[in-house]
Specification:
The protein is α+β, with helices and mostly antiparallel strands. It has a single domain, classed as Aminopeptidase (3-Layer(aba) Sandwich), CATH 3.40.630.30. The chain has 5 helices and 4 strands. The longest helix is centred in the first third of the chain and has 15 residues.
C-alpha cells in the first residue's frame, strides 16, 4: 500500500467518525497536489510498523491583531484502536513545535460539539473554547452567490 492510500484510508476513517462523505477521486487528487506540489497544506503522519495510524493536516493563516501567523489544524485523527497510546498527543505536539518554529502567535482548530473525548483532551492541554466566536462557512454555491457569479438560469 502506498503512503497516499494509507493517508486516504485514515481520511475515510475520519469521515466515518464525523458522519461525512470522504473526498471524491478529484478531491483526492487536489489534496495530493496541495500537499506535495503546491504546498498549501502540510501533512504529518504517525506510523506503527509499516502502517499509517494517524495524521494531522494543517495550514497557516494570519492574525492581523497579533501581526503573526496562526497554525490552523484542519484535521487530527488517530485510528480508534490506536487511541490512548500517545499518538494524538505526539501529533499535536509536532503541530505546536511547527507553530513555534514558524513564530506563530497562536494555534487554532475546531472541534465538533459532540466529540467529548477530543474536548477533554484539548482542555487538558490548557486550550480554551472561544465562547464569543461562532464559526461561519460558505459552501461553493454560497461563494458563487457572494461573489456575484451566480449561474444563469
Amino acid at each position: 500500500m502506498s503512503d497516499a492510500e494509507g493517508f486516504f484510508g485514515l481520511l475515510e476513517g475520519l469521515a466515518r467518525f464525523e458522519h461525512l462523505e470522504p473526498p471524491s477521486e478529484a478531491g483526492r487528487r487536489r489534496l495530493l497536489a496541495d500537499i506535495f506540489r503546491k504546498r498549501r497544506i502540510h501533512l504529518l503522519v504517525a506510523v506503527e510498523g509499516k502502517r499509517l495510524v494517524g495524521y494531522a493536516l494543517y495550514f497557516f493563516s494570519y492574525s492581523s491583531f497579533l501581526a503573526k501567523p496562526t497554525l490552523y489544524i484542519e484535521d487530527i485523527f488517530v485510528l480508534e484502536g490506536n487511541r490512548g497510546s500517545g499518538i494524538g498527543m505526539n501529533l499535536f505536539r509536532r503541530c505546536a513545535k511547527e507553530a513555534m518554529k514558524e513564530k506563530c502567535g497562536r494555534m487554532e482548530w475546531a472541534v465538533l460539539k459532540w466529540n467529548k473525548g477530543a474536548i477533554r483532551f484539548y482542555e487538558g492541554l490548557g486550550a480554551r473554547r472561544l465562547g464569543d466566536w461562532d464559526v461561519f462557512r460558505l459552501s461553493e454555491e454560497g461563494l458563487r452567490e457572494a461573489s456575484g457569479n451566480r449561474p444563469s438560469a
